[in-house]
Amino acid sequence: MIAVLLAAAAFAGWVDAVIGGGGLVLIPVLLATTGLSPASVLATNKVAAVSGTASAAWTMMRRVGVPRRVWWYALIAGLCSAGGAAAASLLNEDVMRPLIIVLLIAVGLFVALNPKFGQGDGPGTVTQTRVLLGALLVASIGFYDGIFGPGTGMFLIMGFTAVFSQNFLRSAAMSKVVNTATNLGALVVFIVGGHVEWALALMLAVANMIGAQLGARTVLGGGTTLVRYALLTLVVVLCVYLLI
């Protein structure tokens, strides 16, 4: 069982680093093999996710670079994610799910029909309006990650690419920093609630970091084209997952 969990955590780290969505891999395996409550599964997964995402963010920042404003975005997103996690019990997932499916399909069609989107050298001219739009974007997606979650990394990449007229690779680096903060914000709420199984979580965190490092190098090697195809693949996978 431990071997299966470690392998799942490593693969989840790779998926998260490439495009996001590693929870789709690790959470079902945790539910199937550990007997933990759903809250403990989500909390334990967050420990692994925040470790792997932070590791991938560090690697991509060193190679691609991120603007200074991304740290303010990370703070905003982390606080909003904590708020979303605290409010999660107030929202019926059956209401959120169809809305996200429609949004995912819209994102997939847009990327598929606009092959030049996210392929430029960028970024475009950074104006105050764009900076404020970026803040609104990370606040909204941060809250979404805390309250529901699927596709957070993908939505961040799409949002940063659209707002700042930059390529997918630069947006991916920014998204990893912000996604680390959203994971951390939600994790704090889980820790306060006493839901984390620390012994298991720390083992999974190490495996997730190994997978994340491999994933970060995969993205850096494949460039914007790889991110584009990974994004389209994730749209299909998430739609099928949410429909099921």
Automatic annotation (TrEMBL):
Localization, UniProt: Cell membrane
Topology term for the membrane: Multi-pass membrane protein
InterPro entries in alphabetical order: TM_pro_TauE-like, TSUP
Keyword terms, alphabetized: Cell membrane, Membrane, Transmembrane, Transmembrane helix, Transport
TM spans (from-to): 70-89, 95-113, 150-169, 181-206, 226-243
Similarity field: Belongs to the 4-toluene sulfonate uptake permease (TSUP) (TC 2.A.102) family.
PANTHER family, sorted: MEMBRANE TRANSPORTER PROTEIN YFCA-RELATED, TRANSMEMBRANE PROTEIN YFCA
Protein name as annotated: Probable membrane transporter protein
Organism: Corynebacterium breve
